[in-house]
Amino acid sequence: MKINNKKRVSYHVGVQLVILALLLLSISVLRYLGYTYFIGIFFLTAFLVLVYGFLKNQFIFEYENSGQVISIKSYRWISSGKKFPVFEMPQKKIVRIEIQERTFRKYLIILFSNSSGKVLRRNIDITFCSEDEIQLLFEDIANNLVKEKSGTYFL
Question: For residue 122, what are the contacts with CB-CB under 8 A and spacing of at least 6?
């Protein structure tokens, strides 16, 4: 199963760039017309659009489950597709998963065992995924854990 949010992120970044271009055009027109007071307001609005763009909807999240290995990749929209695995693990080593919400962020928390049997924790930022994508991701990992562990999985 594959899950990604590339189309939605690309759409949001495109809308943000159009809004930013319109605001910068408005600033130049207002400067030409001599409305210096409004330039500050439009400049502040353009700055807030840029900050919002950096904080939200810039990370593309890809999840792939081949049945044996779970692979999660996350990269910036601007990185032109340079993908690095954030998490790649054989499914049988995953002990537990949960979703935790903190202030303005959502995390997929994966507990897994390493080769020595020690349980390790990995937090993966899934803030930029929709609720449907998060639900599909959680259900897919949970269903495969239940099959693998034959009923010993706890949510």
Answer: 87, 109, 110, 112
